[in-house]
Amino acid sequence: MSAVALAAHSLAFAQTTTTPDNAATLSEVRVLGTAEDEARQALGTSIITAEDIARSPVSNDLSEIIRTMPGVNLTGAGSSGAYGNQRQIDLRGMGPENTMILIDGKPVMSREAAQMRRTGERDTRGDTNWVPAEQIERIEVIRGPAAARYGSGAAGGVVNIITKKPQKQLSGSVTVYYQQPEDSQEGGSNRLGFNLSGPIGKDLSFRLYGNIAKTEGDDIGINGLDANGLPLAAGREGNRNRDLNALLRWDLTPDQVLEFEAGFSRQGNIYVGEVPQSTNATNTALIKELAENGAELRRTYRQTASVTHRANLGELGKSRVIFQYENTRNSNCKKNAAGGPEGSCTGPLEFVESEQQNYFLSGELNTPLQLGGLNQMLTSGLEVRHQSLDDPNAIQQNGPSGPITASSQSQAKSLALYLEDNIEISPSFILTPGLRFDHHQDFGNNWSPSLNASYELSSDWTVKGGIARVFKTPNLYQSNANYWYTTMGNGCPTGVTGPCYIQGNPNLDAEISVNKELGVAWNNHQGWEASLTYFRNDYRNKIVADMDAGAVVDQGTYRYFQWNNAGKAVVEGLEGNLNIPLLGSSGSTLKLINNFTWMDKNHSKDTGQPLSVIPKFTINSTLDWHVNQAWSAQFKATVYGRQKPRTQMANGTPVSSVEEIGTHTIFGLGVNYDVSKNLRVGAGINNLLDKQFLRKGKQGSSAGAYTYNQPGRAYYLTATASF
Questions:
Q1: Does the reported pTM lie above 0.85?
Q2: Which of 168, 222, 527, 716 could form a disulfide with 218 if both were Cys (CB 3.0 to 4.6 A apart)?
């Protein structure tokens, strides 16, 4: 429903006015949707429903279905191919570090506990795998200017994962999922999940869910072996997941709700032979042993506790207050001096644990108003964040010659205030100005103004647009002057054998992006829908650590450089969708659903290097067939355009491969059958035509765009029993 429709179907709100004789009268104010509601209607917003997930089940990670939305891709963060198969959500080409992940409106920051390499990679899958797929009510993917309200880290956009709430009657379900690849060298997946919810008293209700999942790692030789029997490039790591979450809801009054929530998750990798750039006989044997045994060399533990209060405050409107504590512990095998991959772990294995703690407090009030004869919904909010990190890995390496100060601890505190006003200029014109103020203890003040608008030209046509200034503060690795990262020659300037040292830089500036979008949407209310959106992000102060001659400080026996703010960059492209009803009322029986993304520009203005390695274009199509009330089927196709890689630079000259991945198409087929109202089964084939390609190059070496494995054909079965 559009914001205009929300206004038309709004509740009446009584605003008291005073007449000259002091008699109280009431005037009616139509209650608009909030600015957050309006953001959900923006052309840069996509909604994935629980039904979408049920009909296109994921093998493990929600990123598998999120990536099918317009403007969304999976990508690594760097150019070296390090951790290439560890890809994360990338919105509009701004990179994973500029994508904010939320669960029920609460920020998820566990991936920031993973150490950042100089090229921007983190050994992490990201934060889209903490909630089981069957526990999702919907996923909101918000791109463009509407994301400005969320603050630092949302320059690309926001993924808000909304979970299912407690039910009024006792209910529950159990889901099993099994996937088997056709290629015996690829890892399969299986998972088991449950949820239970219902009342436990007059005003109390609960929700409990759990999940056990395992994705096998690829065979050590899937990408080929060298003369020593080591992988030419490692395949996809496996993963073991455990999740448990409990929520207690207390309806204090008809107008007040209090929720207590606690969760625990564990993710352990299954090692497949990620090889450091140089090896010797000792760690060669160790790499083989660890990979053949499927050892876990990295474990991540995430614990959360939160309290949420929601209230209807009458004339003041509706309020929401959230407090969350998030603790992330990363237990990693001790790395060598270069801070390399698992293959560089020394034997016998030693583990080092880092710990990140995040405190988040948020308060928001949505107040209906009538000012100047205009119906409005004013949103005012406050956020407080405190992030601390203790990572002993940061000081495991030997320091450069001469005395240095090293510390494993760092922290950041920030305060934000924001205002947004959803204004009904006319029944067809909604204007939403906004302003967010952030104060960071190290990087000062930042203002983020925004302006979004929606205008209904007719009942079928709507024009929408917006502009906003968005920012991102440096992370705790980049900004800590006591954090040193060591490279044993890889990436050093030409003629320098190493070691080279990378030092954190407390004098960095925040990254800034000015995001703009303008689009048109058409809906004939008979199943036909289409939209086209132009977007452009002008990006400056991107934090990089390219080892170029001019950036390295020569100390004689060693050389070092710092993360620094680069010049300007631009991201520009088109997004759109076209839904075509084929059979049934508004396509209720058979419908063709399409979306596309075209990236016209995605590069640094100074170097010409792309900001992230993503397809030139992406087209997602689904033929959705509801055979009858029990049977449904989906035939899916995704076309990926060519992918042009970044190159590592030394003295201004590219020193790595520029091999591109060409245009290719991945097909899929899924069938679902409702055996009864309490039992649903599904089956399907992923990558129907077995389009497969493999990663090239060892960690840190030339791989071009081939930094990940595209898995081949795989078959899946799933079933959900409920009561």
A1: yes
A2: 222
